[in-house]
Design a protein that fits this description.
293 residues; alpha/beta; Rossmann fold; 2 domains; six-stranded mixed sheet; four-stranded parallel sheet; 12 strands; 16% strand; globular
């Protein structure tokens, strides 16, 4: 009887150990998962993993979170901070060097809906890469992207702390916004292409008390003809400073348009900080706030 009891305990112990071992193996085989901003599951990379950024704003976020040592590749347009220019280039926003990307062997690739293309994502997926996609459409979603990248690379606490500081600046700017004036934010002048209310750029207008005169449900950046610009009658036109001389030339070619816009305030801006939905958007917001005052 005693032998039977002893054997039963031994068998129970063996089964228990096997069960615990199997459980550990199962846990080890299941990677940590984070859902990206387009709803796809992404494997969280290990500490010190190698990363490629395929957009300037993502590169800036990486430096913002002190993760630049893990960055092994980025694009030709990733030029801020200056250290980003020294990192291996894997193409631009339109054309990627897939051979170079494969040669670098990244553990994860960062992409964005705002700048990268769907066919690039599909090609990289076919090649077996782990990809995280961001989709910032407003300031809150920029914060979300920063926190998500922080989670991916073990910097969530740092990300949240830095975001608190940025958010405080945004709140202060919003607090002092003036009465609304109608504005058009041009990103091109030949032809006129403007940011609609569904874009990240529209946030600059909203937060500084300007009303966007361009609205499109289907097109984020619609083309406007001169007649549409006259119909909108903007009190403010914001455009990249490199386009200011060209815009003035167009006005001299179209005297009707020039006459209709004679009282419109023209505000040239630095597109390098305004058009990248990364941490420097606060710098751009402060700049516009000062200029419209």
């Amino acid at each position: 009887m005693k032998k039977s009891i002893v054997l039963a305990f031994i068998l129970l112990a063996i089964l228990s150990c096997n069960s615990e071992t199997n459980h550990k193996i199962e846990n080890k085989s299941v990677p940590n998962i984070l859902v990206d901003e387009i709803g796809n599951e992404v494997e969280i990379p290990q500490k010190g993993s190698k990363v490629i950024s395929l957009a300037p704003n993502l590169t800036e976020i990486f430096f913002f979170l002190d993760l630049e040592n893990q960055l092994i590749g980025n694009t030709l347009y990733c030029n801020f901070p200056t250290q980003a220019e020294k990192i291996a280039k894997v193409g631009d926003l339109i054309t990627l060097d897939y051979e170079k990307i494969m040669e670098l062997k990244p553990d994860i690739i960062l992409m964005t809906i705002e700048g990268n293309q769907k066919n690039q994502y599909q090609k990289l997926k076919e090649l077996g890469f782990n990809i995280y996609v961001t989709n910032p459409r407003n300031f809150d979603e920029i914060f979300k992207s920063i926190i998500s990248i922080g989670k991916l690379f073990g910097k969530e606490k740092l990300a949240r702390g830095k975001i608190d500081s940025l958010d405080l600046i945004v709140q202060n700017v919003t607090k002092f916004k003036k009465n609304s004036r109608k504005a058009v934010f041009l990103i091109s002048v030949r032809p006129f292409i403007a940011a609609s209310k569904n874009t990240f750029v529209n946030e600059y207008l909203k937060k500084t008390g300007l009303e966007n005169g361009v609205f499109s449900d289907k097109i984020n950046y619609p083309v406007l003809n001169p007649e549409e610009l006259i119909r909108i009658k903007p009190q403010v036109i914001i455009l990249p400073k490199k386009l200011k001389n060209e815009f003035e030339a167009i006005l001299n070619e179209n005297l009707l348009l020039k006459n209709e816009l004679r009282t419109t305030e023209i505000i040239p801006i630095d597109e390098n900080i305004y058009f990248k939905p990364g941490p420097r958007f606060v710098e751009a917001l402060l700049d516009l706030s000062r200029k419209i005052r």
